[in-house]
Each structure stands twice: as structure tokens, then as C-alpha cells.
Amino acid sequence: SLLVWAELWFGWSFLVAAAVMLINGVFLFRCRFPAHPGHQAPLKALPVEQKSIQSEHRCSLLDLASYTLYGYIAMATFYLISQWLAQYGQFVAGMSYTLSIKLLSIYTCGSLLCVLITAPLARKTGRATSLLMLYTFISFIALLMVCLHPSIYMVIVFAFVIGFSSAGGVVQIGLTLMAARFPDAKGKATGIYYSAGSIATFTIPLITARLSQTSIAHIMWFDTGIAAVGFLLALFIGYRSRIATKQQLNMATVVKCNIVLPRCKIIGRGFKTSAKCWLKELSFTVEHATYLVT
């Protein structure tokens, strides 16, 4: 909007972005990477319960499909808004060309503010899951309000809200949760997640080009439907994350009980005293784990 107001060449926006990337490259070139910890030695003896849980944890195709589909939907939601928000404000809400261009600036301000707020809050997995569901729900409600009431003030206000909820880090939160869900294949998870987003940037313009031939308002309704599906996926991801957390607690209980159990077999003297000590430790461990699970 500043370039439009000053009647400058639009190419300056690309040149400024290229200069910022060049400065970042020079800064990163002078930085040193931390020492790599290397591959840890595999554990030789693991309990049977732990092996079965870990194999199920790595090979959950249902979780892989849900995160991949969410990567597609999250990228499609904010990519569609960034491409069609100005046209929607101009041709549907009745804004002028200059004011409709400013919607993108308002949208960007909302995304930047969300990044500053989300970064300290999403450090824990539980909070990240809650933020994923919350932001997806806000995106759906904001898009629905814009479609139902396409007025100038409504579009201006919810342009900020949509930028805050859909482009302010929700894609990165989904990637973080997917990497935490597949800790042994974080690189593959990142590749699959962003590949789904790349497919969205390719297929969404093909769909919206057909919809724009009838009405631009249909494009916004299409984005609202995508956000609704994304909210349902976020609820499913939150449910699966809660189940995975309970499985990890149960796995920790099984491992700790198997470690405490052989202690009585090693001690040769005072078998009765050792047996009593083992029973006390075992009952305390199970009771403490049950309290955490519930």
C-alpha cells in the first residue's frame, strides 16, 4: 500500500526482500553450527511392552495421514486469503482499489503479532495442541463472518483476525506436533508436511480460477469450507495427541516396574526383608503412575 500511495515501482518490494535475505545470509555465514551429538548406541534389552509401543508410535499411518492433510489445508487456507483478499474487498465489499490493497498490510500485521504471541506459548506440546485447535477455529469463524457480512468495516477487522489465526504460525505448529509425534523420522515428517503444502499452492489456484469465473464470493465460501475441515482435523489431532501422551505414561510405568522387579532377585541375604522392600516400591510406582494417567 505504501508503494501505491507513493506511486513507486512495485519491484522495490522484491528488491527489499532480496536485500534482507542477503543480510541474513551474511549473518548466518559467520555463525557456527553447534556440535552434533552423533548417533546414540541402541539399547540392547528393552521390555516387550516398550518395543510394541514404540513400533506403533512410528508406524501410525492414521496420524501420518491426518498431519499430512492438515499441512495441505493449513497452507491452502492462508494462501487463498493472501491471493484473493484484495479482490474480495474491492469487488464484493465495494472498497476502492487503494483501500483493498491495504487489506494485505492489515493481514500481515495480524500474522506478525501472532508470531510474537505464539512463540513463547507453543514451547510445550500440550499448549501447542490447544493453540492449533484454537487458531483453526478462529480462522473458520472469521471467514464465516466475512462471507455472511461482506461490508467494508467487517472485512477490515477480520482481515487482521484471519492473518492472526491462519498465517501467524499455525502451519509451523502443525509441523512441530508432527515432528514430536514421529521423533525417529523428523526429517521425513518435515518433507511430507511441506510437500503437502506445496501441492496446495499448486492445486488451489487451479480451483479458484474456475470459481472466479462465476463469483469471487464463491472463493471465500470455498476457503470457509477448507477452514471447517481444518478445524475438524485439529480436533482429531488433539484427540490423538492425548492418547499418545497416555501411552507414553503407561510405557514409563511398565519400564520402571521392570527395573524395580529384579532388585529382589540380586540380593541373596535377607530375602524376606528384600521382598518387603520390593513390594513397597512397586506399589508406590503403580499408584503414582495411576495418578498421572487419570
Helix/strand class: mainly alpha
Uncertain runs: 43-59, 255-268, 270-294
Gap between N and C termini: 54 Å
Helix share bin: over 70%
Our estimate of the beta-strand percent is under 5%
* Series of secondary-structure elements, N-terminal to C-terminal: HHHHHHHHHHHH
User: What value does the average pLDDT take?
Assistant: 78
Using only C-alpha atoms, the radius of gyration works out to 26 Å
Shape: globular
Biggest sheet record: none
Q: What's the total helix number?
A: 12
Question: Would you count the extended β strands for me?
Answer: 0
Quick overview:
The protein is mainly alpha-helical and 294 residues long. Helix content is 82%, strand content 0%.
Structure notes:
The protein has 294 residues and is mainly α. 82% of the residues lie in helices and 0% in strands. It contains twelve helices and no strands. Helix 4 runs antiparallel to helix 5 (97-121). Residues 43-59, 255-268 and 270-294 have low confidence and may be disordered.
SSE blueprint and pairings:
Blueprint: H1 2-6, H2 11-29, H3 48-58, H4 61-91, H5 97-121, H6 125-148, H7 152-166, H8 170-181, H9 186-212, H10 216-260, H11 263-266, H12 271-293
Keywords for this entry:
mainly alpha, disordered C terminus, 294 residues, 82% helix
